[in-house]
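[Automated response] Your request has been received and processed.

Submitted sequence:
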Amino acid sequence: MPSTIRARDLAAPSRSSHRLLDLDTTVGALLAFLLLALPLSLTGLGATGAVTMEGMVADSARHMLETGELLVPRLYGEVYTYKPPMAYWLSALSIGIFGDSEWALRLPSALAGVFMGLAALLLVGRLTRPF
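Generated structure:
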């Protein structure tokens, strides 16, 4: 008896099976990126002294920790509102947790770079996946 081919046998796989494959691929790519990016980003953070703007951010973060005034950043005792305060807040948090060091001062910027890389990876993955 000859076998007959039905239309449902020729249909493309369901979208749900592609999503499972995409999820496995995405998780693998994210883990590979993190395993590569985190050690590269965190190595040598405290190798050199603070330079240029880092000293200003460190001073503002230390002032926030010493005085408890977290809402308005101050630089050398004066209100410093020329830049958004998120960098100062994150630096103060990092210095509060890890101590006053260049490594702790640079940690928020390094982690922000890693998260931007993750966002770019997810965006590229989403834009290039098949429909």
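Summary generated for your ticket: The mean pLDDT is 80. The first strand starts at residue 74 and ends at 75.
If you did not submit this request, please reply to this message.
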